[in-house]
Write a structure and sequence with these properties.
The complex is a heterodimer of chains A (about 250) and B (about 280). Chain A has about 250 residues and is an alpha/beta fold. Chain A contains ten helices and ten strands. Classes of the chains: A alpha/beta (about 250), B mainly alpha (about 280). The interface between A and B is medium-sized, with 38 and 31 residues. The structure holds adenosine-5'-diphosphate (ADP) and magnesium ion. Chain B: Its main location: membrane.
Chain lengths: ~250, ~280
């Protein structure tokens, strides 16, 4: 197996008294795509949001356990979540470009606020990231238009470019295509496969075909528990657990 | 048959809605009409550039009052706009605890305080101790009018920014203050400006808080610790005077004031509707 970039050990998450994630442990190898599938409400988003500590934004949410990023526990009390998020980017379910910012400003905001002021350097980052997000050709002539003026699928790719701009080794995606039409979804799927060359991608999806198409590994959650985790080729053709088989054959979910 | 009935109903409802809209517009149109009719004939360049003449002499203008209003509204703005914006940002971004609830309550009550009472408050706290009517006292009184409006409009505007926009900023590894100022506040500058300008236009037209704070005078003064004229008070004093020429000037002053206030309002509202700064979130 490759190097492990991110290693989750016995993660438990509560919303006040309600436990949404129960003792989940998963290792994520470098430069791979891992999918998380499971019925809605099973804790996929909750799990993913702990990985960059954005779960702390929800009042009453509390995570216990260890999440090791290159060996360091990012849940540790001495670790600054701001630093964690520079290494672990995130793309949300709903495309959310920043309002009243141009396409260019959306992509470069992260690096600009980290101190890069040089115009040509910013332009270079923007082009590079928009290319990686397979959006450059569509927007190169209208970089100063509002990010929100793009179509839903383009907005989502803009959000991917924006996340890539600070160059995080790990990229989290929470159902990135569920708000998009099939063609726009397909574009994002293709894009994910390209991203694998440089990034470790963890993607939540409600769409099993999508997981089977793009991911190397898949985890199956039910009611906050990890039922099965393994290579996609095993999970989808030869699941070990009855529940997994029932879910992927559509008997339950 | 049925369709015809429905179309008729539709027509009746449409008509009543237009009627209501028209009824609402009538007072505004009448006010503007009369102020223009009475004021337009008395307005001339002199009105803007010269000071009042002694009683009995015709002519003269309200230069001192126009400048006084601008001066005191500026004092009020300098005091209350930064404070109101900061309070509004606090209430919208951190406003969950007891302190915030108390602040919100205070601000709401402040909005409801009659402006004459605000004038009396400034009189007791500033004019009496300093033993003099002053532009400062007038500015402070106006700032108390502006503060709650700016604060609440800021809070309401920023609350409209969906939480996932903030999360997107945080997920980029930006500290919270960066997210608040560079994304939430900057992304809504035009709406915030609108709120501020509406508050300013409100203050520019107030008479009551200035009556016994800035008091008014008949000459040009830029001294912050001396009485200062303002358009509303000057209009009030001229309007109740027995002299025809002063009454004409009161109409002219009203015209200037209404153009000023409407102008600020219209400018503020067009700012909101400008295409490139509108709120737009797609699906
Ligand atoms: N902010 C919240 N407060 C309380 N409970 C929540 C909150 N968000 C999610 N939950 C609960 O946690 C469980 C897991 O939710 P979530 O992680 O969003 O599931 P998924 O993404 O798999 O659909 C659900 O039962 C949900 O009701
Ligand atoms: Mg979810």
């Amino acid at each position: 197996m490759n190097n492990i970039v991110l290693s989750v050990k016995d993660l438990n998450v509560w919303y006040n008294d309600f436990q949404a994630v129960k003792g989940i442990s998963i290792d994520y190898p470098e430069k791979s795509i891992s999918a998380i599938i499971g019925p809605s409400g099973c804790g996929k988003s909750t799990f993913l949001r702990c990985l960059n500590r954005i779960h702390e934004e929800v009042p009453g949410a509390r995570a216990e356990g260890e999440i090791l990023l290159k060996g360091r526990n990012i849940l540790g009390s001495k670790i600054d979540p701001v630093q964690v998020r520079r290494s672990i980017g995130m793309v949300f379910q709903k495309p959310n470009p920043f309002p009243s910012m141009s396409i260019l400003e959306n992509v470069t905001l992260g690096v600009r606020l980290l101190g890069v002021r040089d115009k040509s350097k910013l332009m270079q980052v923007a082009e590079q990231c928009l290319r990686k997000a397979a959006l450059w050709d569509e927007v190169k002539d209208k970089l100063s238009q509002l990010g929100t003026s793009l179509s839903g699928g383009q907005q989502q790719r803009l959000c991917i470019a924006r996340a890539l701009a600070i160059d995080p080794p790990v990229l989290l995606m929470d159902e990135p295509t569920s708000a998009l039409d099939p063609i726009a979804s397909l574009k994002i799927e293709n894009l994910m496969s390209d991203l694998k060359k440089d990034y470790t991608v963890i993607v939540v999806t409600h769409n099993m075909q999508q997981a089977a198409r793009v991911a190397d590994y898949t985890s199956f959650f039910v009611l906050g528990e990890l039922i099965e985790h393994g290579a996609c080729s095993d999970i989808f053709t030869n699941p070990k657990e009855q529940k997994t088989e029932d879910y992927i054959t559509g008997k339950f979910g | 048959m049925y369709l015809k009935y429905r179309k008729l109903k539709n027509l009746i409802f449409h008509f009543s809605l237009y009627l209501c809209a028209a009824l609402v517009l009538i007072p505004l149109v009448l006010i503007i009409f009369f102020v223009f009719k009475m004021g337009a004939t008395s307005i001339n360049l002199d009105f803007f550039t010269s000071l009042p003449k002694p009683v009995g002499e015709d002519g003269g203008g309200m230069k001192h009052a126009i400048l006084g209003t601008l001066y005191m509204v500026s004092i009020a703005s300098v005091i209350s706009i930064p404070l109101g914006l900061l309070c509004g940002v606090y209430l919208s971004e951190f406003g969950k605890g007891k302190v915030a609830t108390l602040l919100r309550l205070t601000i709401d009550m402040l909005t409801g305080v009659p402006s004459i009472v605000i004038g009396i408050f400034a009189y007791i706290t500033i004019v009496v101790p300093l033993k003099s009517f002053s532009a400062m006292a007038g500015g402070v009184a106006l700032s108390i009018i502006i503060l709650p409006i700016v604060c609440r409009s800021t809070e309401e505007i920023l609350k409209l920014v969906p939480g996932h926009i903030r999360e997107a900023g945080l997920a980029l590894g930006l500290p919270r203050w960066r997210v608040i100022f560079n994304i939430v506040v900057k992304g809504n500058l035009s709406s915030l400006t609108t709120g501020v300008m509406l508050a300013i236009s409100r203050a520019a037209g107030e008479t009551a808080p200035l009556l016994f704070t800035a008091f008014g005078n008949m000459y040009l003064s830029y001294e912050i610790d001396e009485p200062m004229a303002s358009l509303p008070v000057q209009i009030y004093n001229y309007a109740i005077s027995p002299f025809d020429d002063w009454q004409r000037q009161a109409w002219a002053g009203s015209l200037v004031l209404i153009v000023l206030v409407l102008g600020i309002n219209i400018f503020a509202r067009t700012l909101i509707s400008l295409k490139h700064i509108k709120f737009r979130y797609r699906g």
